[in-house]
Amino acid sequence: MKNKLSILLRAGVFTLAAVFAFAFTQPKPQQGPFVYDPLTDTFTDVSGVNYQCNMAFEEICVYLEPNLESETIPGRFEEL
Amino acid sequence: MGKSSYIIWQSIAYLLAFVFLYTGISKVYDFEGTRQAMHNQVFPNSVANFLLYFIIITELVLGMMLLFKPTQVVGIYGVFVMMMLFTLYVALVYFRIFDRVPCSCGGILSSIGWGEHLVLNLFLLGIAWIGVWRRGKGISY
């Protein structure tokens, strides 16, 4: 009886943890690329948008790969 | 061992098991979000890649260890060490030791700030410390 209770308790803790994890987590789908605006410190998802980055010393846009591993590319965001 | 001591010990083990399994499973469920959050932290990308898998595996393993009596003692020590490291990192971020403040982790904790995260971590560290202390007094199953 004590053994069964112990097993039920363990299974209950594991199940509860899994239920809470699935209930309170919203998976983030892979997105990007992103355009970073340093003035507002925000990222804008530009996936599906054709754009180019032109070098312009008075305007700066920063391009990052979604995996955040590439070097940032300075330039100006222009929608084509 | 008295019944009340046994209940306290098991409660501590199961509570910490719940926390670690919850965070581990939520990290796996939102792996992409976890990966991005890890890369957004203040350490280099190479360290982030290593920690991404290390933390998830460690959380799940320690969580499972705390559920079974033969491994509960080792599990509680492991949880205590991990909580110390997590709390130290959160404290360093909160007190602006690093040059920037990155975003928080996933799950329900993504809705709380670094200050609240620090308080929660200190609470859990205290729980883990009680578990280690009681083990040191020879109180276990």
Polypeptide structure, described:
The complex is a heterodimer of chains A (80) and B (141). Helices cover 29% and strands 29% of the residues of chain A. By secondary structure, chain A is of the alpha+beta class. Chain A has a domain at 34-79. In chain A, a hairpin with a 4-residue loop joins β1 (34-37) and β2 (42-45). The longest helix of chain A has 23 residues, at 2-24. With 141 residues, chain B is mainly alpha-helical. Chain B has one domain (3-136). Chain B is 75% helix and 0% strand. Chain B contains 5 helices and no strands. Chain B has helices at residues 3-29, 31-39, 45-65, 69-94, 114-136. In chain B, α2 (31-39) crosses α3 (45-65) and α3 (45-65) runs antiparallel to α4 (69-94). The radius of gyration of chain B is 16 Å and the shape is globular. The model of chain B is unreliable at 105-109 (pLDDT under 50). Classes of the chains: A alpha+beta (80), B mainly alpha (141). The A-B interface holds A 9-10, 13-14, 16-18, 20-22, 24-30, 66-69 and B 14, 17-19, 21-23, 25-26, 29-33, 35-36, 39-40, 45, 63-64, 67-68, 106-108. Chain A: Residues 1-23 form the signal peptide.
Summarize the structure.
The complex is a heterodimer of chains A (80) and B (141). With 80 residues, chain A is an alpha+beta fold. Chain A has one helix at residues 2-24, and strands spanning 34-37, 42-45, 51-54, 61-64, 73-79.
What's the topology here?
The complex is a heterodimer of chains A (80) and B (141).
Chain A: H1 2-24, E1 34-37, E2 42-45, E3 51-54, E4 61-64, E5 73-79
Antiparallel strand pairs in A: 1-2, 1-4, 3-5, 4-5
Chain B: H1 3-29, H2 31-39, H3 45-65, H4 69-94, H5 114-136
Helix pairs in contact in B: 1-3, 1-5, 2-3, 3-4, 4-5
